[in-house]
Design a protein that fits this description.
- There is one protein chain.
- The protein is of the alpha+beta class.
- About 35% of the residues lie in helices and about 25% in strands.
- It contains 22 helices and 37 strands.
- A six-stranded mixed sheet has the order 11-12-10-13-14-15, with helices on both faces. Strands 17-18-24-21-20-25 form a six-stranded antiparallel barrel.
- Helix 13 packs parallel to helix 14 and helix 20 packs parallel to helix 21.
């Protein structure tokens, strides 16, 4: 009614009627349900903006910006410049609010959010097609902004339209409302209310500490207790009060040698303090000096710490395992070693037991390798036999076999009796502390006398059972295969008395019997398992060699998966050929294996280095004396480790004070180019025992002029080296006396010189012989005769009692009464 009245009054005054200003609906709103991962959903309000038009007084619609300006000018009466300034201020304020909103969203994204509670969606409202979707402003906020429009108009500000309010968002409107409240409070003189939420950089977020924000300095702060302690320390420091520290007592590990720097680090003490302590005791040291374990222990105790001594050898602690308990032991097969003199039938006896013919394939008819075999007796009992060579050069093999055995069978030929290697085998058995069984072999041969063997053994304190002793003896014949059952019974009886047992349920350990290097298979070690069970895949350490077991091969050449106690097998998988006689054991890891082998390699290198170092004057004089020796350099390659060891031992025994065999290199395997190069550099002879050189090595040897000799019998190799070394010996020179002659007169003859007229008083004088001129029992000259005449004729010799004329070659000082001694020099070759 009021608007109609005003329009009527204006019409009466002559003004054109004007339509009232009205806002048309420019936004269509509705709800949309959004679905997210993990089953979450959210209901949001969407809006569709339409182009807003304002009805002009004439009934037509004009552009939005023009109608805004017209409305603003009608409401506020502001000029266009003022409106532009207001508009720019609004845009700046909007940008600032948007930046604050973006910062708030970023901080809220860092804060862990609880899972939203799903609410039932509101009833669906049919939505018109929309061009864009934006977040709607809550209606209460919009109403509040509308209510403040008149106040802003009174304050000189342009009122904002609802579209601007909706565009700025709820957060910007809240911030604007807070700012207005604060300004009103300042005008009234009241204290502005504290906002519970801070904006911008003043805002403090309490978020969970993670890896990503742990190093964010804006989020990290020191605790109040830490700050308080820091202030207290600073006050004490400014006051000059010394703050004592609590000393931490440690257990310090001390190796055999250690530097002062390292010891100070382990004690967490200053190295200067350690050096002062040593200086107080009269020892001057630097920080990098090395001290022994005793000195280090004294220093550690002086500083109040607890020392713990360790040695580099501790790395081998636990290698081989501990002793097994009695309840874990199970019966095992006895290990029997066949020993005796060469050619007494040891291998033939073992072939008769095994029903094989190993002896027929041996070079020279003698055993030159150590072998291990397992035999099953007719009674079902298993026995492991170890066959050792009888040659004198294989002493180390026999000793190794005696140490790895339970029973020793001493084979003595009935037609030959007790020989040197028989006595040596007896001594090895005694040193090993194992029982002995005497097998008298070849009783079927003509002239065999077993009683002579029994009597000869008495000289070595061996009393056999038939002579009321304790040593079992059995008469056997390997050729006729008689007495073998009695020998096996004697072995079984002795094994029963020993009560042999081992624990198969533990990591394996034992001894390496033999080692070799085969083409295609690599390093191969023949081992005898003494305890535990060896399986494929185990990590084995033997001396300075280690490896993972790739395959196990028994004495019959068959591949097996495991080997228990008293079982001999070949191991494939070593990184290098182990030393024969080395103990082996299974370790838990490759790191442990490398640690043990590295220590053993270092220890061996140190031992070899210290052995060749002269430390005393006597040792230096001995080296100078030995420097005059003649050396015969050799490079030896063999098929197995035991053979190479035996050859090296035999060649070392050939040396004398004048000549010796120098082993430049010994190894297992075929002859290679590197061996030829080494022999060429050392000017050595290259010898192969049961091995051959490959094609490349032969070509290199021909080009370098290196001699390669092949042998398959140890006798021949040792004899050839002995002859060659004998050629290096200086021959023996012997003087043979011929006779004496007395000078009766001295004659001067032209063109010849002085000639002595002599009478042979003793022996004879020969032309071309050596002569000495003796005057008053002193040798004046030694030379040769240039002339020997009888009257006017040259003669070959003059016997005693006759006179002759003699002249010396290149010597004229002869007198009457001098004596001429005539002799010959004889050279005699020497041999080793």
């Amino acid at each position: 009614m009021t608007e109609t009245k005003e329009a009527t009054e204006k019409t009466l005054r002559g003004a054109a009627p004007r339509k009232p200003l009205s806002l048309k609906r420019t936004v269509d709103a509705g709800h949309v349900k959004q679905s997210f991962s993990h089953g979450r959903s959210k209901s949001v309000v969407v809006e569709k903006k339409k182009k807003r038009t304002i009805s002009a007084p004439g009934g037509g619609d004009v552009d939005t910006l023009e109608s805004d300006e017209a409305q603003d000018s009608q409401l506020g009466g502001l000029s266009t410049n003022e409106l532009d300034a207001r508009r720019r201020a609004l845009e700046l304020e909007r940008e600032r609010a948007e930046a604050e909103e973006a910062e708030r969203i970023r901080l809220e994204a860092l804060r862990p959010k609880p899972e939203p509670v799903q609410e039932p969606p509101p009833p669906a409202v049919e939505q018109p097609p929309t061009e864009a979707k934006v977040e709607a402003t809550p209606a209460p906020v919009v109403e509040e902004a509308k209510s403040r429009q008149p106040e802003k108009a009174k304050a000189g500000e342009a009122p904002r339209r609802p579209e601007q309010i909706a565009k700025r968002g709820p957060r910007a409107l809240e911030v604007e409302a807070e700012a207005e409240e604060e300004s009103r409070a300042k005008k009234k003189g009241a204290k502005p209310p504290k906002s519970p939420v801070k904006t911008g950089d003043e805002r403090r977020e309490r978020i969970k500490l993670t890896i990503n924000n742990a190093f964010d300095e804006a989020q990290r702060e020191r605790s109040l207790a830490s700050l308080k302690r820091r202030r207290e320390r600073e006050k004490l420091r400014q006051a000059g009060v010394v703050q004592p520290r609590d000393k931490v007592m440690r257990e310090v590990i001390i190796p055999e040698v250690i530097t002062i720097q390292e010891l100070s680090n382990r004690m967490t003490e200053r190295a200067v303090d350690l050096i002062k302590l040593l200086m107080g005791q009269g020892a001057m040291h630097k920080i990098n000096d090395v001290i022994d374990a005793d000195t280090a222990e004294l220093i550690v105790r002086e500083f109040g710490h607890t020392p713990k001594r360790v040695s580099e050898a501790d790395v081998e602690e636990g290698f081989g395992g501990e002793t097994d308990a009695e309840e874990n032991l199970q019966p095992r097969a006895p290990v029997v070693t066949i020993m005796g003199h060469v050619d007494h039938g040891k291998t033939s006896l073992l072939d008769a037991i095994r029903h094989t013919d190993v002896a027929a394939g041996e070079a020279g008819g003698i055993t030159q390798h150590i072998g291990a075999y397992q035999v099953t007796t007719p009674g079902g009992q298993r026995i492991t036999f170890i066959d050792t060579p009888g040659h004198e050069a294989f002493t180390a093999m026999r000793q190794r076999g005696a140490k790895a055995t339970d029973i020793v069978v001493l084979v003595v030929a009935a037609d030959d009796g007790v020989m040197p290697q028989t006595v040596e085998a007896i001594n090895h058995a005694r040193s090993a502390g194992v029982p002995l069984i005497v097998a008298i072999n070849k009783v079927d041969k003509p002239g065999a006398d077993p009683n002579r063997v029994r009597t000869a053994l008495l000289q070595h304190e061996i009393v056999v059972e038939s002579m009321s002793g304790e040593t079992l003896e059995v008469e056997v014949s390997a050729l006729k295969k008689t007495g073998l059952d009695k020998l096996l019974e004697a072995i079984a009886l002795q094994a029963e008395l020993l009560q042999l047992g081992a624990n198969p349920e533990r990591p394996a350990d034992g001894v390496v019997i033999e080692a070799k290097l085969e083409r295609g298979r690599g390093p191969v070690g023949t081992v005898l398992v003494q305890r535990g069970t060896l399986r494929v895949g185990d990590i084995v350490v033997a001396g300075s060699a280690w490896g993972r077991v790739r395959a196990l091969i028994d004495d019959r050449g068959e591949i097996v998966d495991e080997a228990g106690p008293s079982v001999p097998v070949e191991i494939l998988g070593f990184d290098s050929a182990p030393e024969a006689g080395d103990p082996f054991a299974v370790v838990e890891s490759e790191a442990r294996a490398r640690e043990i082998t590295d220590y053993r390699v270092r220890k061996r290198r140190q031992t070899l280095g210290s052995a060749g170092t002269a430390r005393t004057l006597e040792q230096m004089m001995q080296q100078l004396k030995e420097a005059g020796r003649k050396e015969f350099p050799l490079v030896i390659k063999g098929d197995v480790q035991g053979s190479v060891e035996a050859i090296a031992g035999a060649l070392r025994k050939l040396g004398t004070d004048e000549v010796e065999a120098r082993l430049v290199h010994t190894g297992v395997g075929g002859i290679t180019e590197s061996d030829v190069s080494l022999a060429s550099a050392a000017r050595a002879v290259l010898m192969g025992f049961n091995v051959r050189a490959n094609a490349q090595a032969k070509l290199a040897a021909d080009q370098a002029g290196v001699e390669i000799r092949y042998y398959n019998i140890i006798y021949d190799l040792v004899d050839d080296v002995k002859k060659a070394m004998s050629g290096l010996l200086a021959p023996t020179v012997r003087e043979i006396f011929l006779g004496n002659a007395e000078i009766l007169e001295v004659f001067n003859i032209s063109k010849i010189g002085k000639v002595a007229g002599c009478r042979v008083t003793e022996g004879k004088v020969e032309r071309g012989a050596k002569v000495r001129l003796i005057r008053d029992n002193v040798v004046i000259h030694e030379g040769t005769l240039s002339t020997l005449k009888r009257f006017k004729d040259e003669v070959r010799e003059v016997p005693g009692g006759q006179e002759c004329g003699m002249a010396f070659a290149n010597y004229q000082d002869i007198r009457k009464g001098d004596v001429i001694e005539c002799f010959n020099i004889e050279t005699i070759a020497r041999s080793l």
